[in-house]
Amino acid sequence: MKPLTCFVCCFFILSMSPLLSQTNYDESKVPSFEVPDPLMTFKGKKIKTVKKWEKTRRPELFHFFENNVYGKIPKTLKIDSYTILEQDDNAFNGKAKRKQVELSFKNNGKTLRYTILLYLPKNKVKAPVFLGYNFYGNHTITEDKAVFISSAWANNNESFGIENNTLTEVSRGKRTNRWAVEKILDAGYGLATIYYGEVDPDKNDFTDGIHSLLYQQDQNHPKPDEWGSIAAWSWGMVRAVDYFEKDPDIDASKVIAFGHSRLGKTSLWAGVMDKRFAGVISNDSGCGGAAMSKRKFGETLAVINDRFPHWFCDNFNEYNENEEALPVDQHQLLALIAPRPLYVASAQEDQWADPRGEFLSAHYATQVYHLYDKEGIETMEMPKVNEPIHNTVSYHIRTGKHDVTDYDWENYIKWANAYVK
Length: 421
Prior knowledge:
Layout: H1 11-14, H2 18-21, H3 50-70, E1 81-91, E2 96-107, E3 110-121, E4 127-134, H4 181-186, E5 190-195, H5 229-244, E6 250-260, H6 262-273, E7 279-283, H7 301-307, H8 330-335, E8 342-347, H9 355-371, E9 393-398, H10 406-419
Parallel strand pairs: 4-5, 4-6, 6-7, 7-8, 8-9
Antiparallel strand pairs: 1-2, 2-3, 3-5
């Protein structure tokens, strides 16, 4: 999340912060550190087989990330009901079936609803699907006038015409550049997207999203080891898969979790939480996503926890300016997705998200994929810009800034065709 492109803050104000003024963009100033071995247990035992990985090492890594980074979900909460609000079998210039499906959840006398916008290839039965959140409402990803405008809270954005935290018609189609819907449909895939603010508004307030449905009596904030917003958004993606298993037009065994920036962190954690995701894509996810924390390059744990205290669980604050104390790093998070296909992508101008740290995470995670006889990022030498490495674990760095482009989607589709089976 490069400051110039972050939608909730102003670079000129944040650059006055002592933490940000110390931001390192010099590779020679990256501290030396030991890369935690994903195949060495916390007790020092080497993992050599898939069985030991799945029985011993994977669970202990998962529980560390769950209790100390993203936060655990207090209890199970399934879909109470779903409603197809609208559908059209001749959408998107006749190429797609469009559905708008509302999922409802009830607990503690409260109800939460969010809407999935689906575009599915018109002439395909049981379509595979890319699932990802959007930042400003389902109506922003398309010019389609039939797509509903969410009434959920939104961050103000003058260029999108968003004032008083309210989404309006002015912002329709403002993010079509990030969603290559036609390319996705032409390749035989569907696209499912959700406005993330309907699951949990992106602000430091745990009273108005999904959290409050799972509070104990007199609780108004998650416990130190309980879920922050990233885990809440990940939960929403998992529940969407529950719905896909009921939809005859979707191949629920081929759902690919996609996310950009903070929602790339989200797609990674969703892919770790639920093995039903057939593949996972992290686009410019940076700190707390694919980038290695111990490098202290670009955005750091102290900065992200200070600016966005609601994203992670409170226990994660223990490692602010104390990354060396972390017994794990983000390559081990990526390893938890094995043996399922994983794509990590970076942008050349997005130094805030530490492209090299993202690349190295994919490289160091690869040794776990080797247990399953899968190939990944086999070298520590970064590829040239716009020269992707495609394996079960894939990586590219493209020209440009913190964004999602047609180039990204073209590579994700090519990778999915080859590895998501």
